[in-house]
Amino acid sequence: MERQFLAAVCFSALIAIWSRVNAAAIPNSCPLPPQLKAKYDFDWKLKNGEKQNLIAKVAYLKLVLSWSPTYCESLSATARNKQFQCRNSDSFGLIVHGLWPQAAKPAAINDHPRNCQDDKQLNATLVKRFYCMMPDEYLMQAEWEKH
């Protein structure tokens, strides 16, 4: 329960920080897809090698950023055309990948807290609000559930 509360507080803090930026003052600051994907829920049990760790103690939080152009360049042309953030290469730069709770001295990646609960698909209104910061529905959902 403490971990869930901590995750909710951290996510709320991130939302509070982002909401202080007056996005309304910057019309069309980033593109949005014509419509969101219908299904973007995340199920860690379907991923090979994914583990659950409910007992790891959180020592600190790591804000993880990604450079969108490098990510897009790493994809095949077919995959790139399927990713909204990659279709217009100049639309996205530095994006938030996630806010990850970290263990103090992990011996392996699965020693960090992960996959603690299976949440419902995020509300579409919330996803649209943060699309400029995290330009993919599945990315938002996966990061919310995984970390």
From TrEMBL:
PROSITE patterns: RNASE_T2_1. It comes from the Eukaryota. It comes from Rotaria magnacalcarata. GO terms for molecular function: ribonuclease T2 activity; RNA binding. The keyword Signal applies. Transmembrane segments: none annotated. This is Uncharacterized protein. Residues 1-23 form the signal peptide. InterPro entries: RNase_T2-like, RNase_T2-like_sf, RNase_T2_His_AS_1. Keywords: Signal. Belongs to the RNase T2 family.
